[in-house]
């Protein structure tokens, strides 16, 4: 079973997805980290980030998987490496190529077919797992999203806001799997919500979703700092 958490950068996807996965004993899948792995591999090989064909061939050949909350590339943990500013910029360029997205969607479907996942991304509910029993689309004001990311990275709010505007434009207008809510997604505006309040909203959504009753209500056990 897959619980889909989608939305733009800074909307609270990681906070919500990690919390829900921990509470339910599911595996947390960060689809964005998978594209970062492709970007890291491309940078290591000095590939042209505009060459969709070469990047697609690279993506099809990579072994990307998860061990609890840790992502691995070719059997080695790369969590720290893929969060660098250089990889962040490269990932936003790599992810627009249909060839790369096809490879990553196939890998994501292989992973979620083998267990219970809370998957976060930008196309989980629309492309990767459209049959998910619970689809949530998180959003927040651009200013708040920039503030959150600036707090995480140490960059200025104005600098992060410019990067978010650029990423949002690419995500919404790309030909392959543009960033849009699934038709049956529950949309949650997190602009004024603290992490505990975000999780409370998901708790309510779980209770209404038809997800087996045995997993409902468990979010109360999650640390919400």
**Low-confidence stretches at least 5 residues in length (pLDDT < 50)?**
none
Q: What portion of residues is helical?
A: 40-55%
Helix and strand run: EHEHHEEEHHEHEHHEH
Write down the oligomeric state: single chain
Q: What's the N-to-C terminus distance?
A: 27 Å
SS element count, helices? 9
Total E-strand runs: 8
Give the biggest beta sheet: 5 strands, parallel
Q: What Rg, in angstroms, do the CA atoms define?
A: 17 Å
Short recap of the structure:
By secondary structure, the chain is α/β, with parallel strands linked by helices.
Give a quick set of tags describing it:
225 residues; alpha/beta; five-stranded parallel β-sheet; three-stranded antiparallel β-sheet; 8 strands
Describe the model:
It is a single chain. The chain is α/β, with parallel strands linked by helices and 225 residues long. 49% of the residues lie in helices and 15% in strands. The strands form two sheets. A five-stranded parallel beta sheet has the order 2-6-1-7-8. Strands 3-4-5 form a three-stranded antiparallel beta sheet, covered by helices on one side. Helix 2 (31-44) crosses helix 4, helix 3 (52-61) packs parallel to helix 5 (98-112) and helix 7 crosses helix 8 (157-173). The longest helix is centred in the last third of the chain and has 17 residues, at 157-173. The model has no long low-confidence stretch (mean pLDDT 88).
Topology of this structure?
Layout: E1 2-6, H1 13-24, E2 27-30, H2 31-44, H3 52-61, E3 64-67, E4 70-73, E5 76-77, H4 85-94, H5 98-112, E6 117-121, H6 124-128, E7 134-139, H7 142-153, H8 157-173, E8 186-189, H9 195-209
Parallel strand pairs: 1-6, 1-7, 2-6, 7-8
Antiparallel strand pairs: 3-4, 4-5
